[in-house]
Amino acid sequence: MLDRIDLQLLRLLQQDGRLSTVELAQQVGLSASPCARRLKRLEGEGHIQGYRAILAREKLGLGITVFVNVRLSQHKEALVEAFEQAVSAMGELISCHTVSGTYDYLLEVVVPDLPAYEQWVRRLQSLAMVNDINSHFAIRAVKVMGPLPI
Predict the structure, then answer these.
(1) Residue 12 and residue 17: Cα distance in Å, rounded?
(2) What is each CA distance from 84 to 48, 80, 106, 118, in whole angstroms?
(3) CB 120 within 8 A of CB 92
(4) 3-class SS string, 26-94
(5) I need a labelling partner for 61 at 20 to 30 A (CA). Which of 32, 49, 92, 120 fits?
């Protein structure tokens, strides 16, 4: 069970994953050693799954974000697994969710330009189990990767 200090540590790390153990300890009112032990426990229990830099897509030439709805032709286990393996191997795909409703999946794709998206979507269309694709081009990001409401 997470206590108040654990939750405070998680909130702080969501805001800035580069905070040192000493800085975290000061902000939650602990000394460095107990704080480090808590962090190790939170990592070991899977509450903290990793640390990463958030990169500027546009500065890296990835100016187009597309949300893609996909419907499969069938839902046999082997086809679902094959689809998920195929899309997971696509570098342009940054998130994939199974969803309820008309479509089976919601994909988030980042590419440099429309020709690159066309090339990617042709690879997606070549998957035999894909029945329907619906693309939504992001105009502007209002909020991206916000912190979890803990």
Answers:
(1) 8
(2) 25, 6, 12, 20
(3) yes
(4) HHHCCCHHHHHHHHHHHHHCCCCCCCCCCCCCHHHCCCEEEEEEEEECCCCHHHHHHHHHHHHCCCCEE
(5) 49
Geometric angle at alpha carbon 113, from 87 and 146, rounded to 5°? 65
Query: How many angstroms separate the first and last alpha carbons of the chain?
Result: 13
How many structural domains are present in the chain?
Answer: 2
Give tens-digit pLDDT for 48-88.
999 999 999 999 999 999 999 999 999 999 999 999 999 99
Q: Which residue has the tokens 């702080």?
A: 12
pTM of the full structure: 0.88
**What are φ and ψ of residue 98, in 5° steps?**
-80, 140
Sequence-separated (6 or more) residues with CB below 8 Å from residue 88: 96
CATH of the domain at 28: 1.10.10.10
Neighbours of 124 (CB within 10 A): 20
112: DSSP letter: S
